[in-house]
Amino acid sequence: MDTFFQQLINGLTIGSIYALVALGYTMVYGVMRLINFAHGDMVAASAFVGLTIYTQVMGQSATLFSVIMIFLLAAVSMACVGVILERVAYRPLREAPRLSAVVSALGASLVIQNGIMLLWGPQMRIFPELVPQVYWEIGGVVVSLIQVIILILSLVLMVALYFFVEKTRMGAAIRASSIDQDAARLMGINVNTIIATIFIIGSSLGAIGGLFIGLYYRGITFNMGWQYGLFAFVAAILGGIGNIPGAMLGGMLLGLFNAFIAGYVSSTWSDAFTFILLIIILIVRPTGILGERVAEKV
Amino acid sequence: MKNLNVFGYPLFIVFMAALPLGLDARWQEVAISFLVFSVVALSQDIVLGKCGIFNMGQALFFGMGAYCTAILNNEYGWSLLSTIPVAILIPALFGILLAGPIMHLRGDYLLVTTIGFNIVFVQAVQNNLGGVTGGPNGIFGLDSLSLFGHEFTDQVAVYYFAFAVMLLTLWIMRNLEHSKAGRALHYLRLDPLAAESIGINTRLYKIFAFGLGAGIAGLAGTVFVAQFTAVSPEGFGFMQSVLFFSIVIVGGSSVPGIFLGVFVMFVLPEVFSPLATWRYFIFGFAMIAAMILRPRGIWPAKFGNIPKFLIKESNHGG
Fold first, then answer.
1. Closest partner residue to B127 among A233, A234, A269, by Cβ?
2. What ipTM does the predicted assembly reach?
3. What is the pLDDT of residue B83?
4. Domain that includes residue A266, residue range
5. CA of A38: which chain B residue's CA is closest?
6. By CB neighbour count within 10 A (0-12 exposed, 13-18 middle, 19+ buried), where does A125 fall?
7. Which of A115, A272, A286 sits opposite B120 (nearest CB)?
8. Contact of B162 with B32, CB cutoff 8 Å
9. What total number of domains does chain A contain?
């Protein structure tokens, strides 16, 4: 039973990271119908930017202020990267065949991933210990301070995002654009602004996810973006892509699934099990758990 | 297009047939790789370019063919050439079996599912499934190419084996284009609904394309084993699939475009080997630029002998 609760905590922690990253995928997909393959690499880049801010700007101090600054600066820089990415690589291809945009996204992913490698080197780097190593043991289950912070902060961000999308004018515009871009434009919504906003929000959430990955796993590599990005994307699809609560649910479910597979079956097979789960869910429910069953438009 | 058929292809084939004479050992090796990867890219083109199935897992079938050959040679002592039927049939059967339940998925879901297949395959091979795949190190020290007991140690023999496989693939693709199946695939890609309504069994043809592409990629795997006399999981990962996918789309799903893509992706890095660390950084920019400047690919494919005035530009293609 201890293993169960331990993996539950671990799974929720990983799951909330996946959920944060998945939100970036799902929001971009919702409006642009494009898999932003570069998103995962931006997540990785964020961890490296955080590392550099810590060593170069903050003088390796881990006070509360400097930690908050690291999070803010990393989020802002990734938001800038996201907006530039959209402007340069995706906007010229909005009217092009679908697959051209996919290849452009793959190209952007290669650029960011190898840009990290050229700037920070191909070897694994150790992320700084920004949060003190505090552990609590509750009935045989170990909970760390980092896990609590990740869980609470992700939850706050997700609730804030939910209210932003559901209750504000901007959120209504985002939802309208994801249903029908042309109609939204006719209603006076500036779709370009909406897309830029989505890239800002998605990339900042991804940036925070990237810092969490650094904090939780410590070792960061230039090509980790594909692994975490792919998992987060799977999470978005599990929940029903384009659906914001779906991404949160999918992320949590995938994190729990991974943790239980690692705890009870085998960690060397976890990727395979994740994709087998995805394939089974897509065969049973082709649009994900919370996805609407829409007929293919003709 | 006509000039290409009359002069372009024969010239290219003659050039490729004479090529190993003018190359030293290292460049012969590069030329063999070019042929092998061209065959895989062409097989990807049948699935992605001709049929329009969003498949980003072609390296899986390439790897499956290679592993079939390697395992049969290593465990049971079959000669490399005698494994060819198995290396074609097993990937093709797997392709058909895997394609069956997922063909109804919408484009992007299909993309991720095929990525998933590829990752499951690589992980299964790494974990030494069945104790025959050799784990993360792969299988090495395999036999070299032999025919009727005569062993070819010269890699020129491997080159001509690869060349023959490429010619076979080109011949299959040419016949496909002029056959009932090729026409069905073409209309199916342009508009699946319209294709279905004029009596094309879309599901059957999609699975057919997937199986055919998988079989050809599997054959390329045998050539790959003949070249390196070894296999390891890295050669067939997600990254490779991404490259094959990009080559087909950037090339414009035409034969010359694909050869150009394979040349740029696999031969140019050998020419500029001091820039090896910059390789994918530059490719990334090149992919974005190529797509923005030529959204339909660098050398877009044309289909059949349809007069120009009947062709209406549409957004459905590609």
1. A269
2. 0.90
3. 93
4. 2-123+135-284
5. B284
6. middle
7. A272
8. yes
9. 1
Residue with tokens 């804030």: A160
Residue A290 inside a domain? The answer is: no
Residue A194 C-alpha, separation from nearest chain B C-alpha, in angstroms: 22
| B262, pLDDT greater than 50 | yes
Phi, psi dihedrals of residue A289, rounded to the nearest 5°: -70, -50
Domain that holds residue B82: 28-236
Q: Tell me the pLDDT tens digit for each residue of B202-253.
A: 999 999 999 999 999 999 999 999 999 999 998 899 999 999 999 999 998 8
Whether B207 contacts B99, CB under 8 Å: yes
* pTM given for the model: 0.91
Q: What is the pLDDT of residues A166-189, one digit of tens each?
A: 999 999 999 999 888 899 999 999
CATH of the domain at A199: 1.10.3470
Per-residue pLDDT tens over the stretch B80-99: 899 999 999 999 999 999 99
From the list A97, A106, A226, the residue facing B318 with the nearest CB is: A97
> Which residues does chain B have within 8 Å of residue A107's beta carbon, measured at their own beta carbons?
246, 283-288, 291
DSSP B246-303: HHHHHHTSSHHHHHHHHIIIIIHHHHTGGGGGGHHHHHHHHHHHHHHH-TT-SS----
pLDDT > 70 fraction of chain B, expressed in percent and rounded = 94
